[in-house]
Amino acid sequence: MHATTSLPILWWLALGFLGESHGVATSLGNNVTLRDNTTEANCIGVKAISPDCNSHETPYHRDFFYVGGHYEDSDLGNLTYDQIYVEKLTPVGGVKQSKPVIFFHGGGTSGVTWLNTPDNRKGFASFFIEHGYLVYILDQTSVGRGSEENLDDFTLRIGSTAEISEAGFTVPELSDEYPQSQNHTQWPGSGQKGDPIFDAFENAFIPLTSNKTAQQLSMRKSGCEMLRLIGSSFLVSHSIGSVNPILLSNDCPDYVAGSINLDPDIVPFEDFTGTGMTMSSERPWGFADVSLSYDPPISNYTELNLTKIGTDTAGNRSCILQSGSTIRTLPNIASVPFVALTGEASPHITYDHCVIAYLQQVGGSPDWIKLGDLGITGNGHFAHLELNNLEIAAVVHDWIQERLKLE
Ligand SMILES: *[C@@H]1O[C@H](CO)[C@@H](O)[C@H](O)[C@H]1NC(C)=O
Ligand SMILES: *[C@@H]1O[C@H](CO)[C@@H](O)[C@H](O)[C@H]1NC(C)=O
Ligand SMILES: *[C@@H]1O[C@H](CO)[C@@H](O)[C@H](O)[C@H]1NC(C)=O
Ligand SMILES: *[C@@H]1O[C@H](CO)[C@@H](O)[C@H](O)[C@H]1NC(C)=O
Ligand SMILES: *[C@@H]1O[C@H](CO)[C@@H](O)[C@H](O)[C@H]1NC(C)=O
Ligand SMILES: *[C@@H]1O[C@H](CO)[C@@H](O)[C@H](O)[C@H]1NC(C)=O
Ligand SMILES: *[C@@H]1O[C@H](CO)[C@@H](O)[C@H](O)[C@H]1NC(C)=O
Ligand SMILES: *[C@@H]1O[C@H](CO)[C@@H](O)[C@H](O)[C@H]1NC(C)=O
């Protein structure tokens, strides 16, 4: 589709692609063929699909599994529902970390979000494999290779449009809906439709279910079974995928060594829709659309007494928290070490404080890493794909290492 568009020269320089000139000698039996890879531009972005281009990825052994499926009788026969697609990537040099990391993708995308980036640099999976972790990558139930055969309940919605992606993810600075957007600098390329990197990013969007109840119940059904098979692990999630570590922390907290959430879309009781800035009611149980184990217990979310806190401005949104004489806690969720990482120029910098405030209110001691405070600046919502993505992976690695020291 965009094979002939060339990239701005400055971007080349930024990634250090200039100045190399090599040939690759490939042995074919007794014949030796010299493959010419001297034209470096031919290996940029989607062009790296060519057999003439070397991979930049870290070597691993790959196995895949489907976990948690069960039969449901139907007129057509017995169908399998609710299975999670799980890829297990084992470092070639052996596992050197005591606990695995399990990656949960966000909405509209799939496990590929943790692999190489749209401009074909190393993604999070490579970083963690290089650091000796056993890496698991999911396509959650109902998404991608975990698609649901339950066509009635799992109604579909679109993953994204180019316009949503531009305004919400790749060039929020142009629509300028919140002041911090003006500091967004880390997206590779122009971030707009027609740019080959943007187009590669947009190509990765796929439909997801509009039935959040069905989606969350199915992950809840299969997720703890997956953790029982793998054992205690660090769960790394992005965006709307952060509901999954919440559900698993609620249902089987002993298997969650830590919950690490990049721009988590679990804003209590509300959602910022469209490009991210218009509020609507959502997640009636606080962090989820399905029931969570409150103490004192409730059988209906309507028993929660809620109130709005703070002044709502474009740069710092108000939050919904519990009020009244009885503040109910979420003991299981609160027992799991939690960190949110928020991009300096992401829409989330305006409302992730609500996630932290509610976790504190329900009994947790969450960490909140505002990447800008560490000097990691200019990130939008897909920080794990942006130019400084491996610096952010290093922050996650450091947080995990700190947790392991406390165990
Ligand atoms: C080597 O190349 C020659 C000439 O192209 C060809 O005839 C022969 O089959 C090749 N041998 C192998 C092992 O590929
Ligand atoms: C070209 O080949 C050389 C030698 O094998 C290799 O070091 C270099 O990374 C290759 N460049 C690309 C872009 O694949
Ligand atoms: C589905 O499996 C059940 C249990 O094995 C069986 O009783 C039922 O007849 C099967 N359904 C169909 C449509 O074949
Ligand atoms: C943008 O970044 C500059 C430099 O780090 C900082 O001083 C400023 O407060 C930031 N602006 C916003 C709206 O976050
Ligand atoms: C959503 O899924 C739930 C649980 O599977 C089901 O009970 C409900 O009917 C579904 N709603 C829609 C609108 O499909
Ligand atoms: C919860 O309460 C609401 C409002 O009273 C009601 O509409 C709903 O059916 C209740 N849900 C359950 C599961 O009881
Ligand atoms: C943002 O609002 C919250 C209340 O919703 C408040 O606690 C916090 O201090 C505010 N942050 C800034 C940077 O103004
Ligand atoms: C709910 O909260 C309001 C405001 O704090 C308080 O006046 C009211 O008594 C609370 N209701 C219950 C049932 O706790």
From TrEMBL:
It comes from the Eukaryota. Keywords: Signal. The keyword Signal applies. InterPro entries: AB_hydrolase_fold (IPR029058), Carboxylesterase_BioH (IPR050228). CDD domains: Esterase_713_like-2 (cd12809). Gene3D superfamilies: alpha/beta hydrolase. Residues 1-23 form the signal peptide. This is Alpha/Beta hydrolase protein.
